[in-house]
Amino acid sequence: xxxxxxxxxxxxxxxxxxxxxxxxxxxxxxxxxxxxxxxxxxxxxxxxxxxxxxxxxxxxxxxxxxxxxxxxxxxxxxxxxxxxxxxxxxxxxxxxxxxxxxxxxxxxxxxxxxxxxxxxxxxxxxxxxxxxxxxxxxxxxxxxxxxxxxxxxxxxxxxxxxxxxxxxxxxxxxxxxxxxxxxxxxxxxxxxxxxxxxxxxxxxxxxxxxxxxxxxxxxxxxxxxxxxxxxxxxxxxxxxxxxxxxxxxxxxxxxxxxxxxxxxxxxxxxxxxxxxxxxxxxxxxxxxxxxxxxxxxxxxxxxxxxxxxxxxxxxxxxxxxxxxxxxxxxxxxxxxxxxxxxxxxxxxxxxxxxxxxxxxxxxxxxxxxxxxxxxxxxxxxxxxxxxxxxxxxxxxxxxxxxxxxxxxxxxxxxxxxxxxxxxxxxxxxxxxxxxxxxxxxxxxxxxxxxxxxxxxxxxxxxxxxxxxxxxxxxxxxxxxxxxxxxxxxxxxxxxxxxxxxxxxxxxxxxxxxxxxxxxxxxxxxxxxxxxxxxxxxxxxxxxxxxxxxxxxxxxxxxxxxxxxxxxxxxxxxxxxxxxx
Length: 580
Known about the structure:
With 580 residues, the protein is of the alpha+beta class. The chain contains 17 helices and 6 strands.
């Protein structure tokens, strides 16, 4: 419909203006190429170009006028299409890059989930089955408990290995790269450039042989025009990779000098040759750096105005002057279209690569933060069952029951790996941390005074509590642990301390604590701060997060958490320490 309205606006003025209205079909030709399906656009494109040329030839009978208008419609239509296509290409590449990044990230998540289910999930399933059989047995077999400990250790090793794989892949950043499909754009830019040069060549010939009169020294004019065509193609023809002609400064100086000299010295060919200065302005814009290129364009526009207004009047001079920036922009866009296309595709691939790298590092953090606590609890409880199996069988069975419960929970979270950490809350993690540390013989103090936290802050606070408890179990033999979560003046503050930092657990792996780096990255991502300090035998973890001013509905307690805002400074004392 819009194309029909535009067609009416293009052809109706011929009835009123007559021969004064011409070349209006250029914009309609470009609109057809931009809006109609590619294969279906050629027929109406050709009809418009021929119809406009026929009307121009009817009002000003001349085969040259018909050919001239035809060339102008085709060349300018392609030129306008190229510039608009370039803008569309930028937007389309950005959108495609975002979609591809999302697809690659989702594929990376699925691959990680598959690895976890195949390796760690299988270990946990075997561990659960063996634990159930041990609990069903009348007596606890020491060899079976040892087997359970081996399964727990292997599950932890597998989880760590998968996390390390994603972390190393993220640091290396190797992702499949795609070859940028610039062939179509390169061919289009070349054809469009050839049509534009052909259009200017036709215009020159029309001016040289106007009214079929052959001027004197026509051979000189034709030679100059052909030389200008060759130099233009040499300097601006789009190349693979955006290569620069070796002798471009000499060629550009020859092109400009030849055109200016011929226009000044041969009066009969002035208009026929001077129009090639419009194309030369595009060459200057491509090859000369700003601001010198812009100064050259300004000088060329002024010179064209001064030259043409002597013969064509003010409007003729203005018409030529306005053609300088127009054709400079067209030539510049066509020349750079293939290279910009290649860079856009490379940028898209780089954005996808960065997204995948970021996701791999996030997956490594999630694997550590998700499974670390559960596997540490399982290993600790199996160790306690081994220690108490003969002296206190009932207590050992309680420990095995907790092993089964933790393994079931770990397996359930593993099956919802991509969203499991989103369901972590501070209340649940405080309750779980207090229970396991008390069972290990530590005195635990919990202070929770941070109700109505935003979901993302509450989630991160819970992850911090979980990781802190995991590190205490793995790396220390504490007697006193304190968890303080307070919110005031738009900020939530987490402070977790434990002693026994100089009395490491004998089974710790002594490798760098990836969990603290994970927590620091998560905290900083929400604009917070996290610090960890060791003072003699006391380890202190401090995190602070900003709370949005908008009120957040209170989160209902989940699970068996019994830490509420009224639990300030609740202290539970139990003799002993974590097992050695």
